[in-house]
Design a protein that fits this description.
- This protein is α/β, with parallel strands linked by helices.
- The two termini are about 30 Å apart.
- It has 19 helices and 21 strands.
- Helices cover about 35% and strands about 20% of the residues.
- It folds into three domains: about 10-135 and about 180-455, 3-Layer(aba) Sandwich (Peroxisomal Thiolase, Chain A, domain 1); about 135-170, no CATH class; about 465-595, Alpha-Beta Plaits, CATH 3.30.70.
- The strands form five sheets. The protein has an eleven-stranded mixed sheet with strand order 5-4-6-7-1-8-15-14-9-10-12, sandwiched between helices. A four-stranded antiparallel sheet has the order 16-17-19-18, sandwiched between helices. A two-stranded antiparallel sheet has the order 2-3.
- It comes from Streptomyces boncukensis.
- This is Polyketide synthase.
C-alpha cells in the first residue's frame, strides 16, 4: 500500500521497453497492431494440446472446455541459449516463461540505449510477475504418475502407466527451472545485476504490481534502476478448464469490453519488460524517456467471499490512492486503459467506480481495453495495458477499440467516458498529456498507475541535420532483416533522426555492419530499404549513395570516434564527414561512435 502524497513523490521515468504479444513480436509491431487493431484470437493448435480431448458442449463435464479459442504466442520453444552462455541442459530445464523474460530484459536494456556503454548493474533490481507454470506441471508429470500408481490418489496400480516413459525424468538442473523466482534470478544472472530480484504473483494485476513495486523501490532508494514486468504462457489446458468452470471465458470466442453482446474474455499470452529509473537521473543522463510514472495506487479488497469477483469499494480505494499520490485531480487523465475483461460483472463494476471517482462534472476521457485485441493474459495483462498506454502518451495518439458497439446499460456517457473506434490525436485539453492504467486480480489485489508525457516531449525539437545510422548483426541475412525492420519503424513512427542515431550508437556491435547517412527519417527509411535489397542480393562495400556494408574483425579493440556536433559543419561538409565515418564503422576494427549523451552511471 502507498501512503505518499504529491509533495513526497518522486517521479519515475520509463526509459526502455520490450514485449511479445500475439501478432506483435516487438514494440513497433505492437503499436501498429494497436492503431490498426485486429483480434488475435484463433483455435488452439495441437502443438499445445489436443482439442478433442477437452472440448465439449456438455457444460456439466467438469474436465472440459466450451471454447477452443485463445490468443497464443508462436514459437515459445525457441531460445538462443548460446547467446547467453547458458548450457543446453540448463536451458532445456528452464521454464519457457523464464527464457522469454531473459530475452525481453536484454531487449529492454538495449531499447534504453545501454547495451554498449553498460549501466549501474550494482544497484539494478528485477521484479517480475509469474502466475502459473504449465511447464512445471509437464516436467513433474512423471512424479504424479508414480504417486497415482502408488495409490496416493485412490486405488493403487501394479506398475506405472506405459505413457510415463514419454515424459523426461528430472535432472540435476531441473529444479532451478521449476521455481518461479528463477525467472527474475536468471535475468539478474545473465545481465550481472546485484539489486534485489524476485517473482511475485497477484494474478491478473501481477505485471502492473511488479511495476508499482519497482516505483516504490526507486523512490525509497532500494535501487537506482529497475527492470519490471511479467510473462504468461499456457502450456497446459488447466487454466482454460478452470476459468470455463466459473463461466468467465467467452463462449463466442470474442472479447468485447464495455460492448454490446459481451460474454467474457478470451484467454491470451504475452510478456513485457520495462526499464525504470528516477526521472531526474534519466534527464541528467540524457536517456530517452517514454513517459513518467506520476502516481501509484495499490490495495486489496480485504474480506471477500471467494475472491474471484470485483469489489467496487476496493477498486475505488486503489484509484483514489493513485491520484492522491500523483497530487492530481481524479479526472486528470485524458485516456484510461481499463482492466476491461468483457464480463458482465467486471465491466459494470469498473464503469461504476470510474463514474464515482471522476464525478458528474469530470472532464471527458477516452476509455480503452487492450483485451479486445489480445485477450486476457492474466499475469501479463497489466503490462500489455501499460505498454499500450505509454506508447499512446509518447506518440500523442489514441488507439481505437476494434469492432465496438456500446453497451447502453453501462452508463458510459454519464461517466463522461468514450470508447474510441478510430485512431485519433490526443485531446488538446492541457499542456501535458496524462493517462492511467488499471489492473485488478483474482484475490482482490488492484493497481492503478497515473502517467504523464516526458518533459522531453514538451521541449522544442531541433531541425534534423544529416545523421549516421550504424546497424550490425551476426550474419548478412540478419542484417538485411534488421535494416528493413528499422526502415519500417521509421516510416511508421516518424521518430526524430538524432534520437534513432543515438539509440543505434549505444547498441552492441556484431561482425556484419551497415552504415547509412541520411538527412530525414523518410530519407533514412528509403536508403535502409534499398541497402537491405542490396544485402539480400549478396552485395557489399559501397551499396549506393550514403550506404556502406562490410565486416569488422571480431575480438579487435574498437577505436572511438565522435560524431560532428549539430551545426558545427556546413551541411555538405557534415555529410562528407559522416560518409567517411560510415566506411570506417563497417570495416577493419570498426568504430565505437560517441554522441552527446552521458552514460547511466
Amino acid at each position: 500500500m502507498n501512503d505518499t502524497t504529491g509533495a513526497d513523490r518522486e517521479d519515475i521515468a520509463i526509459v526502455g521497453m520490450s514485449c511479445r504479444f500475439p501478432g506483435a513480436g516487438d514494440l513497433n509491431r505492437y503499436w501498429e497492431l494497436l492503431t490498426a487493431p485486429s483480434t488475435q484470437f484463433d483455435t488452439v493448435p495441437d502443438t499445445r494440446w489436443r482439442r478433442d480431448g477437452f472440448f465439449s458442449t456438455d457444460l456439466r463435464d467438469s474436465h472440459s472446455v466450451y471454447t477452443d479459442t485463445m490468443a497464443l504466442l508462436p514459437d515459445v520453444d525457441q531460445f538462443d541459449a548460446a547467446h547467453y552462455r547458458i548450457p543446453p541442459r540448463r536451458a532445456r530445464a528452464m521454464d519457457p516463461q523464464h527464457r522469454l523474460l531473459v530475452d525481453l530484459a536484454r531487449e529492454a536494456v538495449q531499447d534504453a540505449g545501454w547495451e554498449a556503454d553498460g549501466f549501474d548493474s550494482e544497484h539494478t533490481s528485477v521484479m517480475m510477475a509469474l502466475t502459473d507454470s504449465g511447464y512445471r506441471e509437464i516436467s513433474t508429470l512423471h512424479l504424479r504418475m508414480r504417486q497415482l500408481a502408488g495409490g496416493e490418489f485412490g486405488a493403487a496400480a501394479d506398475e506405472l502407466p506405459p505413457l510415463a516413459g514419454a515424459v523426461d525424468a528430472l535432472q540435476g538442473s531441473s529444479v532451478a527451472g521449476l521455481l518461479m523466482n528463477m525467472g527474475p534470478s536468471t535475468v539478474s544472472s545473465v545481465l550481472g545485476l546485484h539489486g534485489e530480484s524476485y517473482a511475485l504473483d497477484a494474478a491478473c494485476s501481477g505485471g502492473l504490481l511488479a511495476v508499482a513495486n519497482a516505483v516504490h523501490a526507486l523512490r525509497t532508494g532500494r535501487c537506482r534502476i529497475a527492470l519490471a514486468g511479467g510473462a504468461q504462457l499456457m502450456l497446459t489446458p488447466d487454466l482454460l478448464v478452470g476459468l470455463c468452470r466459473i463461466g468467465a471465458v467467452s463462449p463466442s470466442g470474442t472479447c468485447r469490453p464495455f460492448g454490446a453482446g459481451a460474454d467474457g474474455f478470451v484467454l491470451g499470452e504475452g510478456a513485457g519488460v520495462l526499464v525504470l529509473r528516477p526521472l531526474a537521473d534519466a534527464l541528467a543522463a540524457g536517456d530517452r524517456v517514454y513517459a513518467v510514472v506520476r502516481g501509484v495506487g495499490t490495495g486489496n479488497d480485504g474480506k471477500v467471499s471467494g475472491g474471484m469477483y470485483p469489489r467496487p469499494d476496493g477498486q475505488l480505494r486503489v484509484l483514489r490512492r493513485a491520484y492522491r499520490d500523483a497530487g492530481l485531480a481524479p479526472d486528470a487523465a485524458d485516456f484510461l486503459e481499463s482492466h476491461g475483461t468483457g464480463t458482465h460483472v467486471g465491466d459494470q463494476s469498473e464503469i461504476g467506480v470510474l463514474g464515482e471517482l471522476r464525478g458528474e462534472r469530470a472532464a471527458p476521457a477516452y476509455l480503452g481495453a487492450v483485451k479486445a485485441v489480445l485477450g486476457h493474459s492474466l499475469g501479463a495483462a497489466g503490462i500489455a495495458g501499460l505498454i499500450k498506454t505509454v506508447l499512446a502518451v509518447q506518440k500523442g495518439r489514441i488507439p481505437p477499440q476494434p469492432e465496438y458497439e456500446p453497451a447502453e446499460h453501462l452508463g458510459l456517457d454519464a461517466a463522461r467516458l468514450t470508447v474510441p473506434t478510430a485512431v485519433g490525436d490526443w485531446p488538446e485539453r492541457g499542456p501535458v498529456r496524462r493517462a492511467a492504467v488499471s489492473a485488478f486480480g483474482f484475490g482482490g489485489t488492484g493497481v492503478h498507475l497515473v502517467l504523464e508525457e516526458s518533459p522531453q516531449e514538451r521541449a522544442p525539437q531541433a531541425a534534423d541535420d544529416a545523421q549516421l545510422l550504424v546497424l550490425s548483426a551476426r550474419d548478412r541475412a540478419g542484417l538485411a532483416r534488421y535494416a528493413r525492420d528499422v526502415a519500417r519503424a521509421l516510416t511508421a513512427e516518424e521518430a526524430p533522426l538524432p534520437a534513432v542515431t543515438s539509440t543505434l550508437a549505444h547498441r552492441g556491435q556484431f561482425e556484419h555492419g551497415l552504415a547509412v547517412v541520411a538527412d530525414s527519417t523518410a530519407h533514412a527509411a528509403t536508403r535502409l530499404t534499398t541497402a537491405a535489397a542490396s544485402l539480400e542480393a549478396g552485395r557489399s562495400g559501397e551499396l549506393g549513395p550514403g550506404q556502406t556494408a562490410g565486416t569488422v574483425r571480431p575480438g579487435t579493440a574498437t577505436p572511438k570516434a565522435a560524431l560532428p556536433a549539430p551545426g558545427s559543419l556546413p551541411p555538405r561538409e557534415r555529410t562528407a564527414a559522416l560518409e567517411r565515418l560510415a566506411r570506417e564503422a563497417v570495416s577493419g576494427a570498426g568504430l565505437k561512435l560517441s554522441v552527446d549523451r552521458t552514460p547511466p552511471h
